[in-house]
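Now for today's protein.

===
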Amino acid sequence: MMEMILRNFFLFLSQNKLLNKSAKKYGLKLGAKQVIAGETIEDAIETVRKLNDKGLICTVDHLGEFVFNREEAIESADYCVRTLEAIAASGVNCNLSLKLTSLGLDVDRNLCRDNMRKILATAEKHNNFVRIDMEDYAHLDATLDLLNELRREYSNVGTAVQAYLYRAERDVENLKGTSIRLIKGAYKESHKVAIQDKNEIDENYMKIIKQHLLNGSYAAVASHDHNVIEKVKQFAKENNIPKSQFEFQMLYGFRTDLQLAIAKEGYTMRIYVPFGNDWYGYFMRRLAERPQNVAFAARGIFNK
């Protein structure tokens, strides 16, 4: 009960525009610096380089919330392009994750599409990959529609599917042949569209992971749960699914020992590395996911 109360509280805070604005001014305080790799592209590249040296590959995400005008959307797209150019110039092993709302999805669909084309063309030039993060349910259909349109022109783009949605199995089937990040889901959604029971979500999560792997498609299994990870390893062995068909993903700053152990076993271990000054919404959703993360953030305040 308390876990659900905390989850709803932090999800509520994540959508507060006034607090988001204040957080930008305050900087990476309140423990956020433990899970966010600084504010600049240079900060992100340096973090990725250090992770690469440990045998971990990465994806970077320039954080952004509440983009509601063309200028901000274009600026965000240009920043993504610069990030891809910096990745190529540095030689680090890293791709790019982004949210379509940061590129103007709520402003003008055509603007968002054109921004994505520019980003994907840059990534293609450097033989890199771009993953579209999945956002709340209100943006789901628009995200998948745009993804399908883009995939007619570019093969270097994928997305994510959230296991807590009733439609997850159908979406995975429709995305056969697409690289998908498989996640449980981090937004507060209505019981009309999303499973509310944790055990049922866990069950559906494993179901769609197996479904996508058996489809012969590339799966990015994003989980910090060692039980899930062991189940995926076992399933892959039993079904002769090569390690090259899937990877594990974790968030920067969480379960670092487990990340290293997985990489040493010969599995692809990718770290999701967020950066930028618009960190507030991302950080609140991480606190909502697990009550333990609140204690983790508190340690960041007092261990400076």
The two ends are 32 Å apart (CA to CA).
